[in-house]
Design brief:
The chain has about 100 residues and is an alpha+beta fold. The protein contains five helices and three strands. It has a three-stranded antiparallel sheet, with helices on both faces. β1 and β2 form a beta hairpin.
């Protein structure tokens, strides 16, 4: 079965955040960490995977991504703090 992920990467705790969606989480976070793709995460050094949600359907993941992007910053920080209080880099657990 194929899965889809909504994720948040950060530059450091309580700093710059980026929210994305992918069907290949390991590859996508690798791209962020190694500045493979020009853009926001490369410009602002946003490489630390701090939050993940998994979905079976792409429509669900896209909806959730849009929902999180519309949230207030404080809500996003609280979400990360609730599930990953140490702001540990979750990518290390994936590889």
């Amino acid at each position: 079965m194929k899965f889809y992920w909504v994720y948040i990467v950060a530059s450091e705790k309580n700093s710059t955040l980026y929210i994305g969606m992918t069907n290949n989480l390991i590859r996508r976070i690798y791209e962020h960490k190694n500045n493979v793709i020009k853009g926001f995460t490369k410009k602002y050094n946003v490489h630390k995977l701090v939050y993940i949600e998994q979905y079976e359907r792409p429509e669900e993941a896209l909806y959730r991504e849009s929902q999180l992007k519309a949230w207030r910053r404080t809500w996003k920080l609280e979400l990360i703090d609730k599930t990953n209080p140490e702001w540990k880099d979750l990518y290390l657990d994936l590889i």
